[in-house]
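Why do we bother with holo predictions? Because pocket geometry can differ from the apo form. Keep that in mind while you read this record for iron/sulfur cluster.
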Amino acid sequence: MKIGFTTSFPVEIIFAAGHTPVDLNNIFITGNAKKIVEDAESGGYPRNICSWIKGMYSVVLASEIETVIGVVEGDCSNTHSLMDTLKDQGITVIPFSFSYYRNKTELEREIKKLEKHFKVEHQQVLVVKKRLDKIRKKLVYLDELTYIENKVTGFENHLWLVNSSDFNGNPDDYEKRLDNFIAEVEKRQPLKFNLRFGFLGVPPIISDLYDFLLEHSVNVVFNEIQRQFSMPYLENNLTEQYIRYTYPYSVFDRLEDIQIEIKKRKLDAVISYSQSFCHRQIDNILIKKYVNVPVLTIEGDQPGELDARTKLRIESFLDMMMY
Ligand code: SF4
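The structure, written out:
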């Protein structure tokens, strides 16, 4: 059975139960995203609601997905209503919560609840974790090829890391393709660029952002949230892994990780991306306050290419960086 989900959660449980997890965001953004958003609006979703939410809603209704795991605490303020509207359409919805307080006992309880729902033993889940960690180790290496060897573009880094949320539903195939990609990249000459940027925030809905930056001699060598989806810490147990995963907790937890990576990756500046109508825009107040390199905030609304205004803002920021 295909099980949709709204953001990264202990996906090991779904694989252990013999089902295929499907990250709804990835299906949305790789499909006819504009049309998918329009479909949700035709179904009554308001104009001033984030496109990702509308995308996930339409993707479920247009697919054979009958069950969706919604992360109702730690992700998005809109998920409750998304789950209700899906339920109304006959979809089975299963809530999962990351405690605001980053509490291990509460997380363990959520994990056990999900294991019980899918009738899997924790031992089976750990076997899957070990299998996925073998791939995750390779992603850590891919990330190093990006920020140490300078052989991977920001977009390539983004794609591999963002797709590790569900391993495209097939870890074996994902690993095979990853091995081929790494072998190809190892033979490359280092990329030439002037500035090293970090990308903070949810993955962009804008399709050509990384290309535009590279055309202006900027490579993104740190994709913050995409890296979090790849579970790079390789902890021994499931609870530790999802406690260290910063995305669902407070912005201060994210900032801790961001500060370390800015230093380690020698970043010149960061782009803090947020989505129109997203509560996470408020986090930019604290990101700007505590990040100690220049920060450019940009906002994406509809899926598609960069608009002229955002291009101009990026170019002005780069001019400022050069002088
Ligand atoms: S971008 Fe913000 S509003 Fe949109 S789905 Fe993600 S958390 Fe929710």
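The two ends are 56 Å apart (CA to CA).
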